[in-house]
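User: Hi! I'm working on a homework problem where we have to compare a predicted structure to a textbook description. Could you give me the structure for the chain below?
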Amino acid sequence: MSVKPIRLFGDPVLRTPAEPVRDFDKELRQLVKDLTDTMIDAPGAGLAAPQLGVGLRVFTYYVDDVLGHLVNPTLDLSDEEETGDEGCLSLPGLAFPTPRAVGAVAKGFNMHGEPITVEGTHLLARCVQHETDHLDGIIFIDRMDPEQRKAAMKAIREAEWFGDPVPQVKVSPHKTLGKAI
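Assistant: Happy to help. Predicted structure tokens:
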């Protein structure tokens, strides 16, 4: 098992757009393993490479008992939106209502460079949008209206982990509100 520390809100890597993967090699396969093991251990519904401090366009997901990953994703979103509670492993213990498209089609590659498509609605759509945002340097609170975002920032500043970009100890699952994305 290769569980790695998850970068927390405030770490600059979370605000830096990730680079496209060019080499589908052993290092990429190890990154996917690290992401998968860390996401499952956390536990979370998704985890993007920047959350482990790696600036590459890769994420993993585990939604409705389906485990997968996507490299260099592009998204096609439905016009219909819904607002639902969303959390993040980089903001442990916090969740806020966040608007997202109800449906998403994500196209990209697997770790071997083969083209794949991930299509889903509701939680899976929310997850692929959330993780792709991480690859673009966007954090889910950026999607909230200004008043809600202000309240979220207050909660973040008051969190016990705030100011520690790489946790030295794992945050216990009982401090999260369900699965963080």
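For your comparison, note the following. Residues 167-179 have pLDDT under 50 and may be disordered. The helical segments are 26-41, 122-135, 146-158. Good luck with the assignment!
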